[in-house]
Automatic annotation (TrEMBL):
Chain ranges of the AB hydrolase-1 domain: 155-396
Superkingdom: Eukaryota
Pfam families: Abhydrolase_1
Stretches for region Disordered: 493-533
InterPro entries, alphabetized: AB_hydrolase_1 (IPR000073), AB_hydrolase_4_sf (IPR050960), AB_hydrolase_fold (IPR029058)
Regions that span the bilayer: 25-44, 554-577
Keywords (A to Z) from UniProt: Membrane, Transmembrane, Transmembrane helix
Designated name of the protein: AB hydrolase-1 domain-containing protein
Family membership noted in the UniProt record: Belongs to the AB hydrolase superfamily. AB hydrolase 4 family.
Amino acid sequence: MEAAVSSDGESAGELVLRAAALVPWTSYALAALALAAALLYRFLELHFLGDLLRGLRGGRVALTFHPESQVYHRVASKCRSLYGRYLATPWLASPHLQTLFLSISGRPPSFTYRRQLYNVRDGGTIALDWLLASDLEAEDVDSCDESISRDDSTPLLVVIPGLTSDSSAAYVKHLVFSMASKGWNVVVSNHRGLGGISITSDCFYNAGWTEDMREVVNFLHQKYPEAPLFTVGTSIGANIVVKYLGEEGESTPVAGAASICSPWDLLVTNRFISRKLVQRLYDRALAIGLKGYAKLHQPVLARLANWEAITSSSSIREFDRHATCVVAKYETVDTFYRKCSSANYIGNVSVPLLCISALDDPLCTREAIPWDECRANKNIVLATTPNGGHLAFFEGLTAGRLWWVRPVSEFLCALHDSSYMHRQKAQEHGLHSSLESSIDKTPYVNFMEDGMVAAVTNDGPDNDGSLHNQIVGEIELNDGMVAIQQNEHTGEIQNESDSGVGEKNNSEGNVTSVQGHEGNHKQQEEPDANNIRDAIVPVRRSINQITRSQGKSVWLLAYIAVVTSWPLLGALGYFLFRKRFSNSMLAKKPKKL
């Protein structure tokens, strides 16, 4: 077929090109910009136009709960934020922009922590960073010497940060400051090897490692038995909190908890972050953060795993294959993800739990949220928002607040004022005692050449049986500077010094120590007979319990055995003694004459 030709002998294609040449180049530039803007709007998942169409009211908070849940009807119903809407900051109307801004700035409040080092049973060291309610009430924090007494009933909140995060993270400081402003005492339990603390054992933290949280919670509960204990986990910390609550069930001393942006199912989440281009960028960024964490502790990690393979990891999965699975002794990466996913433990959670997730979370996908499991548990209330990013939820024109902090504080305060706080049930086998791994056993810390803080054993001048001179190591995280003060006081957590004194002590290589809980030295001086008696008592209780519970069953089994076996025994006896029985009968018959 011949092409259409005009009267001037030009083809249709030539006519189109001539017409296109008549269009000004500025029109093409505007069209290209519009196309690029549309692609960028879709790539960044912006929702500013959607917010405008909704009249800048934001999206509703969706709640998932059991219809008969008293936690929802009596506690969550008093939280105004859960029945409102969430409107993201207009210039951060994207989950990626929110998450990026949180990691870069986050605009956290300014305050100073008090540091306490805790030595766990396997020799590892955990940094506990405190912010007391009295610290915010005092005009001069440096001169405040108030500490927590054993019979203090002020509620205590334990915060578990996310992956490669510590107490200096912006979202952690937002939460800590908000709860301390409401009169609560708050402590951040940093992961091993984070917060400026070196690894002092062959154990590293991971997404399913709940032993550190278990020891810290038990220690705090034993040291402050009158203080209601609450906990909040964020991201990986949320997975640890929910998994811990499911493992402990009714036996945990935690009265209430909150889970923020939990990955829930680690296998589904890992597949999600390797699916699209933007998610793969997050995967690469998190892998770089994990390799930076490994670099801080290279001497230990290089001895336990293949260091070259760790440094060549380009994704979280590769890092977990070469580092996490090797150190934690998991067969495969998928085995690690399946066993450590908190979604498997939701059914056994016996503590009032508020879970908050954003449906546009770029890291923890909505596909992993266990909707049905949360709906089946009367202790759980799940709140989801259309937007928010990962741990961000910025609101206001200046992005000075994180929305999720408000419903968490409302929920925990309402739970504390109600009668629905979880009460720990007495156990026959006893709790995991942290008295055997108290702070007093290794009260000293050294400053290494790389600036890390390392715990040292008790082999010091105070091992003559007298009380150790305890020194509280305190940290100041303003402007990213860490300051440690040497302060020779015994007992409770002390106040913080200025950064100048801390830098001086750091440069001089002073040895600092941390406080321990009361009465530990008395326990160490008890005779061995008491230790043997304490070890026998739980065994005796267990035997008595088994005897009481199995007594009736033993008698029932004996009765059944007698009833069912007597016909067999009778038949067997008949065949065995048949001849003898017949002879005796014949002998008794009278003889005929």
